[in-house]
# Entry
Amino acid sequence: MSERRIILKTPGLTMRFGGLTAVDNFDIEVQEGRIVGLIGPNGAGKTTCFNMITGFYIPSEGNIFFYDEEITGLSTHKVCAKGIARTFQNIRLFYNETVLQNVMIGAHLRQKSSWWQAPLNMPSFLREEKEVKDRAMFLLEKVGLADLAGEQANSLPYGEQRRLEIARALATQPKFLLLDEPAAGMNPQESWELMHFIQKTRDDFGLTILLIEHDMKVVMGVCEHIWVLDYGKLIAEGPPEEIQANPKVIEAYLGEEYLENA
Amino acid sequence: MMGNRMRNNTLTLLAVVGLAAFLWWADGNFDGYKIQIMNLIAINAILAVSLNLIYGFTGMFSLGHAGFMCVGAYVSSLLILPSSQKQAIYILEPLIAPLQTAHAPFVVAVLLGGLVAAIFGLIIALPVLRLGGDYLGIATLGFGEIIRVFANNLVPITNGALGLKGIPDYANLWWNYGFMLFTFYFIFRIVNSNFGNALKAIRDDEVAAKAMGINTYKYRVTSFTIGAFFAGIGGALLASLLTTIDPKMFLFIMTFQVLMIVVAGGLGSITGSLIGAVVITILLEWLRFVENPITLGSFEIPGIPGMRMVIFSLSLVLIILFRREGLMGMRELSWDSLFRRFSKRGEAE
Amino acid sequence: MFVQHSLNALTLGSLYALIAIGYTMVYGILRLINFAHGDVFMLGAYFIFYAGALLHLPWIVGVVLAIVVTALCGITVERAAYRPLRDAPRISVLISSIGVSFFIENLAIVVFTGVPKPVVRPSWLVSIIKFHGVRILPLTIVVPLICLGLVAGLLFIVYKTKPGLAMRAISKDIETTRLMGVSVNKIISLTFGIGSALAAASGIMWALRYPQIQPLMGLIPGLKAFIAAVVGGIGSIQGAVIGGMLLGFVEIMIVAFFPALSGYKDAFAFILLIVILLLKPTGLMGEKIEEKV
# Structure
């Protein structure tokens, strides 16, 4: 096995809201190119970790390193520019725009032209706009939404909205993709397809993927390494087989969800 | 698709030529009153679409538009007023020296009015756009009022409450509609680019926009400044059309009227702003009839002064209550949509 | 001299504070900036005028009537123009309130005419008394006292009664409060009623202080009072009072010590607003409202 770079390091990462410690020493190291998972009961602090990594919250303690570069406290849009993209637990699409526009907005980050070139109709501007459109269509094809390109985002069924959100995140050309409960609301058939979709996406785009998920079939099926969070603290980490057998993990979940989905 | 684009562009060009022909005809055949209304329509359209950029497309509830109009109006007027007239109207205190002799051709004066308004917009935007939502409305309203109060008090610059009179009436149909086309083209190109998509993203969900790498603060400042620029142009043209201005014209009520047009036409629709300007301007003029006595057979219903604005404001409330998307919502009246409509009619339903 | 200015500032501050309370209460429960609130203030002044000039009622009866009728107006506005938009995007209610404000102003111009009307003032309130070299109207002392009384009464209602508890609950979480069986609509109407009543009281006292009333008299004081509410921390009654007092003092004192700036009086409020929004956006006593990601 070749030596993999560490794409994300979060020594001592802690988040406090007033007197409440939401996340306590979330210390992880993610290897480049892997698909990894963050699980835990509801309210454990998983999305808070995402929010810290992506710059929505400034951590109370600790640091975040992205490929050895410190990004702690960077504002959200700068974090995205560095190469970290995310989806949201409650899908946050741009509902008044079309499917294609949503993905194009994701691609806007990497555009070089400026707004004033638009009224001047400069050829370099027009060329770049076309490239953005083509790239967005390419991504839509990859997620299987190409024929819905002109539809309004809020007219899409739930599962397709999730795929659109992922396509939009991919448009920012990330190196690291954070998916917040991508399988939420999916039936077994859909989550099975999602598993393969995640793997294919990682392979096609050379990404590292970290996902928060409650659907254990998906987590165990697709993640190479898992961290478990309970009441803000890491209680276990390891490959799926170890996590499945870990009594602390089972206890945290009260076993039920795991038993159902195993 | 390619064929469609060529067709659309040709149609738009034909429409512009048609407009020019109509203006040429109107110039010769309409009476002064009708021409004034047409002029107001063009200026209101400019004001509406500039506010729409800020509010309808970028989601910033700005209530300071009157302030930018005020700046544009004064800057442009001071540059086109002949020096002799300036001396005549500044009776309290003389106009400060550099402005006394400053002069510029009309088109330059209007553009400079817009530019200075944009600078004001930028200065205001930088601190204020760190606030969100409701606070933004009040803060921009506050700045609009501050500008007005300063205009009222800086007598050696603005002539205070007396205002400016005898402003040359260069703003005829051609200038007004010319600037209107320029404004609409400019804003249309911006809104339809991916930059415009980013603005709409900020409007739809600022959190998600940030997560997609968009520096929402920078984009909002930019959009606000561009909107202020065109508000300044609108103000400059209005000043030349009315030939007199004073700070009382630029009370918050002025912003409200522009807001009304934007809402009625459709927040987030460029063609909506144009249609809204036509409808509201004509409506406001038409409503004057309630202020004059009406004779029905042998009865005379007395006119009620001020009723016009009562009906106007009531209409806004009714629009918001029953059809808040206005006439167009976020849709645009485009050639494609027109063709789709007519081809549907041809098919069997 | 300073004493005189301070008393004037206290009076003006009280008048602003009473209006500001209405803004802050409505914003606290509905997150709405009620642009029409300033016009409710104006209505209070006009109703006392008509109570005296048209109905020839004894003064105290007129005051009570004016306050009650104005409160009813406030409640009606909420029912007609805001409640239907409860589930609409926030901006729709804002625009509706702007429209209502404009409507009330223009209706007032039509019905009352724009000619300023003189309000009858009880002579004991407006005969100048001299006290240690200070010349003031009894009104100047009465106004802050009444304001104090009204605020005390309000705080009692808000903190010591069930409806007040419901108001506080709604301002934290309207859905949960509704689920707990509270008649949210009634409480909201009550809030608007109280806020409008206080604004009416302010309008009446304002009319006594500055007896020429006109339909647009609520525009600028209304805006300033809202600014006072924001400065003090929107959503906080104590903040509204503090903000109102602060604004009153700033206005009076700056004009007192820099008379050349008196033309800019109206801009002070807005400048104060900008300063506060930049330094401490939640206001002097406000709380931060986090957005959940």
Summary: DSSP finds ten helices and twelve strands in chain A. The radius of gyration of chain A is 19 Å. The first strand of chain A starts at residue 6 and ends at 9. Chain A has a mean pLDDT of 91.
